[in-house]
Specification:
5 helices
Length: 106
Amino acid sequence: MSDKTTQPATNAGESPCTDPPCLDAQQHLWEYIDGELTPDDRDRIAAHLDSCPPCAKLLEEDAALKATLLRSGCDGKSGPCPGELKRKITTLFSQWKQEACSGKDD
């Protein structure tokens, strides 16, 4: 990651997480983590993540969530996630995204 702490340009009063480059990156984070993007798409997302701390935080959290899912057997290969676990994960995931987009830190 870059040492720069520059934020992406935003419209007045708009969260960086609603800018088109942020939305694009967020829509492709799991494919980025899994190495499923084309080289050009991967480079585009990587460049955005290097310049956008909120999106980089989402990447970090998505990677942690994915690792947790794999450890808990919710990888899609060993069957579906139990309903209560899936509900808890979905709730936490939504909270993480809201906090990252609002600029809150843990």
